[in-house]
Write a structure and sequence with these properties.
heterodimer; A: alpha+beta; seven-stranded antiparallel beta sheet; 17 helices; B: 324 residues; mainly alpha; MetI-like fold; 2 domains; two-stranded antiparallel ribbon
Chain lengths: 527, 324
């Protein structure tokens, strides 16, 4: 700004005395407000011990949870406790029952399997020519090879370990010495975590590669230790000597190396099995295959058409529970709609009785107004809790809660609008000898109807949002489902799905409400 | 509907070139009535369908449960009238047998050896603090964002777009999801609720604020621009003084809403009075429930009245009643 000389300032001050002699409070309003705010912040900081809570927060988990919104993990366990490599998946793996992903390659060779005590010196991590079956595991996951592949997997996965166990046990009974046996099995496995990162596993050495760096870990199964060769890079962590090593590969996943197994978490972008879960006959098929099967394939279930089976599989998807989510969402919508509509229907006649100028009876006015205040001030939450007890969990409780609260709100707003109307129109209608009902109909309603409708629509919109929240205390709708999905901490992708649905619904209803408002209430559309 | 060009409605022009106003009016009226009736019928159908659906998917059926509609009134009758006061002020109860129902003094929060804050007052204070602090955070950020989002102060269309969409996302995101997410990080406590309410408030207040700013009188701004004021000076001395009363009015309105919101979030696990209420209702402790409801009721009325009074003082008659 331009600088003023002292004379000029004095001159201005003389010309505008009022502007320079303000009361103390007004003059220092902003500094005082800022000081009060700062003091309050300090108080709140202390009251909630915000600092401690934030520093105790589990921030590592936050990242993983956020990633879970848009991605999923596949968690193969590569075990080599006995010397033979064995790959297992958790029971509800997103890859189905017999997964054989192309990013895990195995190579067969001669392995030394031992049961009690281990002789590490002479295992043969053979990349020998002898066993060349490994290639078949990289097979593309078309259906035929898939079953073939998994059959093969089965044949040497579980039985081999069983057999060796049993053999070991039998031998151990007779002579308790170490039993080793050299036979054919999986000697090496490579898990590709991203294009630049991979984990190469043999029974005695694990090689972790990220970018250009490679970390080799020696496994000592006898002493049950894991020890790195050389220094650990920044992306790998080992808490104590010989303990497990956790290697992080960023978003792509991580690997936990223990002396008997490597737990790999590989993260994939996207929502797994969104349409069909792994039990569905449509699972793992491309869109065109699904369509072909649905419309022209042979009947999967002789009683129903393939299309019906497809629909049934989608709706009852175990992981995503589409059908249930949709019903709950519809409940939320219905709760807001019916609750608001009933509230309008009840509040409309009551507000005429509560308005001073329409019903000139002080007693009735006051009673009704205090009644509205009561309904409004007993919170929607309290009503929801009570009606959940009355009706059991479900949308009826939500409808009643919204209905009770909003009857109060609408009653208040409507009676205030009625008290502010222009009296001339009523007088005009009355002067021509119209009946009391006609006076209201033609003298009052046309004035207030736009306001009434606009407010009703506004609250409809807002109730669609609040119905989500009161649902969480059991009043029906998607709130409870959302809350449960969050509390288990495992289904963040389901949370994301429901949030997206809610956002779509809110967006659509905002637009419907705006469109209706501008149609029905043209001049007062902007509130 | 004003018809200015009569020739556009040829149907109503008779042979001798006269325009039949009455017939046209009657036709318009008939169309309007048709639309009204159609609309009402559609509404009725939607209502019936919704009710049927709600009843079908509810745990208890409406007609079966209707006789129990006012059961909660029965659940609320305490053993004697003084129990409510004892529960409210944590006084020992003559019925105390060590069960949760009558152990009022257990929840006392001692300040000194003998001076204590009754449990529910403390919890109410917690809920109020959540609301006030969250609203203040929302006010601060909404204040900052509003000037960047306003058309008359920010020339960059791109920046405005980004800020406005950002606030829209904050506003639309369900509070309960934010609370649930932070509950997973911070574990139980009031802070997740506070963050959730604050985030929502930033979006809601930001939107209202920038609309106020866009309607501000630009003459002070022009004056400051003429003497070479930079952007901050123009905003601070030209715009802020005019919009501040409206801002504070919206702030107070939001505070009313947030007191309720933080109560509800409390009930789903974020602490405060909401949680106490939910537990008390589900355990059937009638005196405690009544005490909490009484406290909540009085607090909400006080906050509403105080805020309405302040708003009336600040912006006079145009106190916004339904800015929810």
């Amino acid at each position: 700004m331009t600088t003023l000389t002292a004379d000029q300032i004095d001159d201005i001050e003389r010309r505008h005395p009022a502007a320079f002699r303000q009361p103390f409070l007004k003059r220092f309003a902003y500094p005082i407000a800022i000081v009060v705010l700062a003091l309050y912040t300090v108080y709140a900081w202390w009251f909630f011990s915000i600092g401690a809570v934030i520093s105790n927060g589990n921030w590592n988990i936050a990242g993983a949870y956020l990633a879970d919104w848009v991605s999923y993990e596949v968690r193969p366990d590569v075990e080599y406790k006995t010397g033979d490599i064995e790959i297992t998946y958790p029971r509800f793996s997103p890859l189905g029952e017999n997964p054989d992903p192309s990013w895990i390659t195995t190579e067969r060779g001669l392995v030394t399997v031992s049961v009690e005590g281990i002789d590490t010196s002479d295992s043969k991590p053979a990349s020998t020519g002898g066993a060349g079956v490994g290639g078949s595991f990289m097979s593309p996951s078309s259906d035929a090879t898939n079953t073939g592949g998994s059959g093969l997997m089965n044949s040497f996965m579980s039985p081999s370990s069983d057999a060796s166990n049993m053999g070991g046990g039998a031998d151990a009974d007779e002579e308790t010495t170490v039993v080793t046996e050299t036979r054919e099995g999986i000697a090496e496995a490579t898990v590709e975590i991203s294009s630049t990162s991979k984990v190469h596993i043999t029974a005695d050495e694990i090689q972790l590669t990220r970018g250009g760096e490679t970390l080799a870990l020696t496994i000592d199964r006898k002493n049950e230790t894991v020890s790195p060769v050389g220094d650990l890079p920044s992306w790998a962590v080992q808490k104590g000597e010989g303990e497990k090593v956790i290697a992080y590969f960023g978003f792509a996943g991580r690997a936990e190396v223990r002396w008997y197994e490597v737990k790999v978490n590989r993260r994939f972008l996207g929502w797994e099995n969104f349409f069909f879960d792994t039990r569905s006959p449509y699972w793992g098929k491309s869109f065109s295959e699904v369509m072909t099967l649905a419309f022209s394939g042979e009947r999967i279930d002789p009683d129903r058409s393939n299309l019906a089976v497809m629909w049934d599989n989608i709706v009852n998807n175990a992981e995503w529970q589409h059908g249930d989510v949709w019903i709950k969402l519809l409940q939320t919508i219905v709760m807001a709609f019916v609750g608001t509509l009933f509230a309008v229907m009840i509040a409309f006649p009551l507000s005429f009785m509560a308005a001073r100028n329409i019903t000139p009876n002080r007693f009735v006015n006051q009673i009704l107004k205090r009644f509205f205040d009561f309904l409004r001030s007993v919170d929607m939450l309290i009503w929801a809790l009570f009606f959940t007890r009355a009706f059991g969990p479900g949308p009826l409780a939500g409808i009643s809660a919204i209905f009770f609260t909003d009857t109060g709100t609408f009653g208040k707003l409507y009676s205030e609008a009625l008290e502010n109307i222009d009296d001339k129109q009523r007088e005009g209608v009355r002067s021509v000898g119209a009946s009391p009902a006609a006076v209201q109909r033609y003298g009052v309603v046309p004035q207030v109807l736009p306001v009434f409708i606009s407010q009703a629509l506004y609250f409809w919109e807002s109730n669609t949002r609040s119905a989500t929240i009161i649902g969480a205390v059991g009043a029906g709708g998607i709130g409870l489902k959302l809350w449960e999905a969050m509390r288990t901490n495992a289904d963040w992708e389901n949370v994301a799905y429901m949030v997206i649905l809610i956002l779509i619904v809110v967006f659509v209803f905002d637009n419907i409400s705006n469109a209706l408002r501008s149609r029905l209430v043209e001049p007062i559309a902007r509130d | 509907m004003a018809v200015t060009d009569a020739s556009a409605h040829g149907a109503y022009v008779s042979g001798d070139g006269r325009y039949d106003v009455e017939r046209h009016w009657r036709d318009l009226n008939a169309t309007r009535r048709l639309y009204t009736i159609g609309g009402l019928v559609a509404l009725a159908i939607a209502l019936v369908a919704s009710l049927w659906f709600a009843n079908e998917t509810n745990a208890g059926k409406f007609l079966d449960r209707l006789p129990h509609f006012f059961d909660f009134v029965g659940d609320l009758i305490p053993r004697d009238g003084w129990e409510v006061w004892r529960a409210l002020f944590d006084l020992p109860s003559p019925y105390d047998t060590g069960s949760l129902q009558y152990n009022y003094p257990v929840g006392r929060v001692y300040i000194t050896e003998s001076l204590y804050v009754p449990e529910y007052f403390y919890k109410m204070l917690e809920t109020l603090n959540i609301a006030v602090f969250a609203t203040l955070i929302g006010f601060t950020f909404g204040f900052i964002f509003s000037f960047v989002a306003a058309k008359n102060l920010t020339a960059s269309r791109w920046l405005r777009f980004v800020v406005r969409r950002f606030m829209e996302i904050l506003r639309a995101f369900p509070e309960i999801v934010i609370a649930g997410f932070f509950l997973a990080i911070f574990s139980l406590g009031p802070i997740p609720a506070m963050i959730a309410v604050a985030i929502h408030t930033i979006g809601a207040l930001g939107k209202m604020f920038f609309e106020v700013v866009e309607n501000a009188d630009m003459k002070p701004d022009e004056g400051l621009r003429a003497v070479g004021g930079n952007w901050f000076e123009r905003v601070w001395f030209g715009i802020v003084p005019q919009v501040m009363p409206n801002f504070i009015s919206y702030f107070l309105l939001r505070l009313e809403i947030n007191v309720r919101a933080s109560t509800i979030l409390g009930a789903v696990g974020a602490g405060g009075i909401g949680e106490a209420l939910r537990l008390s209702i589900s355990r059937g402790h009638e005196a405690k429930t009544l005490a909490i409801i009484l406290l909540l009721f009085v607090t909400i009325i006080c906050v509403d009245q105080l805020s309405a009074w302040l708003r009336k003082k600040l912006v006079g008659k145009q106190a916004f009643e339904f800015g929810r």
